[in-house]
Design a protein that fits this description.
It is a single chain. The longest helix has 9 residues. A hairpin with a 5-residue loop joins strand 1 and strand 2. The chain starts with 12 loop residues before the first strand and ends in a 17-residue tail after the last helix. It has a 3-stranded antiparallel beta sheet. A two-stranded antiparallel ribbon has the order 4-5. It is 27% helix and 19% strand. It has 120 residues and is of the alpha+beta class. The protein is built from 5 helices and 5 strands.
Length: 120
């Protein structure tokens, strides 16, 4: 499947608040988040997509090989799938969602710039 988004569909782009990958709202609903699906369960759940993704984000970067990219490491994206990612994502996850991430063995790091490098 292609990651190309025609200009007419760009207003429907959303960024995952956990990993910051950017996709259309319909793609999040149809396929879920390629990085966070095991614990966010976005596929076929439009309400979860609304809660865990945001239309408000800053900057875009494209990663073709996150495991070898210094930008991916700097943005804490190494280990994720190749794709388009937001530099910052504005929004706040619910406490229940954060707990689900931690229960799955993950660690939630806000993508809105509110955490500094010493905390991560």
């Amino acid at each position: 499947m292609t990651n190309f988004v025609p200009g007419s569909q760009q207003r429907y782009l959303r960024a995952c608040m956990v990993c910051s990958i950017v996709q259309t709202q319909q793609r999040f609903i149809r396929e879920g988040c390629p990085n966070c699906e095991p614990f966010l369960d976005l596929q076929n759940h439009p309400d979860s997509v609304q809660e865990c993704t945001s239309q408000v984000y800053e900057g875009l970067l494209t990663l073709s090989d996150p495991s070898r990219s210094w930008v991916a490491k700097w943005q804490r994206l190494d280990g994720y799938v190749p794709g388009v990612y937001a530099v910052k994502v504005v929004g706040k996850l619910s406490d229940e969602t954060i707990q689900a991430i931690e229960d799955a063995g993950g660690r939630y790091v806000p993508r809105d710039g509110t955490i500094n490098d010493d905390d991560a």
